[in-house]
Amino acid sequence: MSRIIIIQGPTASGKSSLALALAQKINAPIVSADSRQFYKELSIGTAKPSEKELNIAKHYFINSHSINDLTLTSAGFMKAGRSKIKDLFEEGHENIIVCGGSGMFVDALIDGLHPSPSDAKIRALLHSEWTNKGISPLLKELEDKDEETFRRIDQKNPMRILRSLEIIRASGKTLNEIRTIPKNGIGYPTIRFCISWERNTLYNKINDRVMTMLEAGLLEEVKKLPLLDNLLLQNTVGYKEWLGYLKEEESLENTILKIQKNSRNYAKRQETWLKRYQDLICLNPKHEIGLLEQLLKHL
Hints:
By secondary structure, the chain is α/β, with parallel strands linked by helices.
């Protein structure tokens, strides 16, 4: 029977390592649902699997896109990811592993989305308007066209604002009207896992991983990227914090502390997202039985 095994959880929890071990054990491909590991230019700051790890098991949607292209939206990922999963099952795979901490992208893939349109021309135009005129006129347009979304949205997150306006301009509907349209699930059986760490332990792991990223050359990676001009980078933890440093407005020490703090906050939001799942199976990293063995008992 075809089945999708989902491994979710907060950053630094060990999802990728567990997915890789499972892939080797049951000979399954891995579909990444990490919304930043899609991009080939982002490696160190996204904790992307190494070349060696990528060669151990077949991975999809890692290094599949470029930050110089239009951003892969959750709707775009749903369409492409479902197509790939269908192909993999038709090739004879009994199990497919979906691994990632981007809850919105996992949900889009598995549960589907309300059919909100994507329009590349509108998206490019909105990005140009944001670049040339700033976010204020776009916020005013959002308030005029969809006051409820305007009140609810994070007004410091340009990506969310631009995506909302893309939907509104393309559909002529408010986001609330869009949400009344039913979703279509993926249509395959699923089983969902996460690795459940004590919060203090997880936070220490996050702090340590940031330092490991720095030792691996994170700053050198950032210097090669168009951080000052790229909206995706300016909304990505581990990259956006370098803006002040590159403008010589922030010290290296404070920049590192910001990355650690924002990474911990992101992990907390990821843990909150997990609470919505009724089918979530939590694995205990301190159990005498290893994570892989715990997971296999449920398969």
